Model the fold of this input.
Amino acid sequence: MKKEKEQRSWLKVCILVVLLSVIASQAKAHNLWLALDHYSHRVGENAKVFLYLAHSLPFADLGKPENMKEFFYLDPSGKQKEFELKKPDPESFFNEVGVPLAMQQEGTYMASAVMKPIFMTTTPKGRKMQSKKDLPDAISCRYIEFFAKAIFHAGKPGGNAYKTVLDQTIEMVPQKDPCLLKSGEYLPVKVLFKGKPLTGEFVYATYVGFSTREDYAYTTKTDHKGIAMIRITNPGIWWVKVPHKEHYEDQVECDVGQYAAIMTFEVK
Done:
């Protein structure tokens, strides 16, 4: 009888450890974002676009553009162009980082990256990158989609590329050009989820240098039209995130859909 109680106690401890690990993994979820060496360039200069996949600013791991589902940019006229990616050389120790972009037109540009959707299922033996449909011992499952934008300019900012709707599952659409913002002003962004305004959702904003953890300088919520007003409290490189979770449409396949969009820009 005593042995049976001890076994039950150990079982409870194991279940608690697994549950805590699940909670921790969700609290420290990776983020996908784009950044540049400089957000302001002269016409004709080359910019370098970097892809990051990490927890928070400024510490980040470089992502692999070739592993993205989509990776492109819009020039100031709104024309979409694919980035020219170099094939990685496994023999070379000094692989070049950053994707070059020749900025031949004056105005505001927008770069976009879309991660390939994944399933992440937690089991007693660890996490599996597949749905729970074929995992009878599955504890929980997340379906994940991440999206990233960076807005920058060559010469004088201008054009409508920055407010182009890309029809991504979740996205932030600035209602004014972020490249024209000054400290103390507000940036209105419209948040869309599956093409419709996302109401009552938190939007988090921070800037490089505010914190080395996942802390935010400003937090707000979208209104009944999906609009969030972000107060730009300081000059610098800004990082704005909108996360969203909901029940996955097919509960046999997965439990939760986890979505996030992150946008970066610089305020002078």
Remarks:
- Residues 9-88+99-267 form one domain.
- Confidence is low (pLDDT under 50) at residues 5-28.
- The chain has one domain: 9-88+99-267.
